[in-house]
Specification:
By secondary structure, the chain is α+β, with helices and mostly antiparallel strands. The protein contains two helices and five strands. The longest helix is centred in the C-terminal third of the chain and has 24 residues.
C-alpha cells in the first residue's frame, strides 16, 4: 500500500494523525493534519489539511492540488482559479456530508427504513 493510500485510509476521518508542515507566503510554517486526499470531478487529486494548533481551531481547512514527485514525495500546489476552487470545495463538502451521514447512522443502512 502506498503512502498516499495510507493517508486516505488513516486520515482524520478514520482516526489517523498524518501531518504536513506548510510553509506560508510570509515564510512562517504551519503544522496541519491531513484530513483526506480525494479526487474531484475534474479528475485531479486534492488534499484537505486542517491546522493542528489550538490557536487555529476556527474550522479552517486548506485545499491544495496534490501530486507526487518522481521520487514519491508529496507535491502540493496552490489552486489558482476560482472555478477550480469551487469544484474542489464542492467535492470536499460532499465528503464531509457523507462522513456526517455515516456518523449519524453508524454505517447501518437498516436505520434508514
Amino acid at each position: 500500500m502506498s503512502e498516499r493510500d495510507e493517508i486516505r485510509k488513516e486520515g482524520l476521518f478514520e482516526g489517523g494523525d498524518t501531518t504536513v508542515t506548510l510553509t506560508l507566503d510570509d515564510g512562517s510554517t504551519l503544522e496541519c493534519v491531513v484530513l483526506t486526499i480525494f479526487e474531484a470531478s475534474n479528475g485531479t487529486e486534492y488534499i484537505a489539511l486542517m491546522p493542528e494548533s489550538a490557536e487555529d481551531e476556527d474550522g479552517e481547512v486548506y485545499l491544495y492540488r496534490y501530486g507526487e514527485t518522481d521520487d514519491g514525495q508529496p507535491d502540493l500546489q496552490n489552486i489558482e482559479s476560482d472555478e477550480e476552487y469551487e469544484i474542489v470545495a464542492d467535492a470536499f463538502d460532499e465528503i464531509l456530508d457523507e462522513q456526517e451521514f455515516r456518523e449519524l447512522f453508524k454505517g447501518d443502512p437498516s436505520e434508514l427504513e
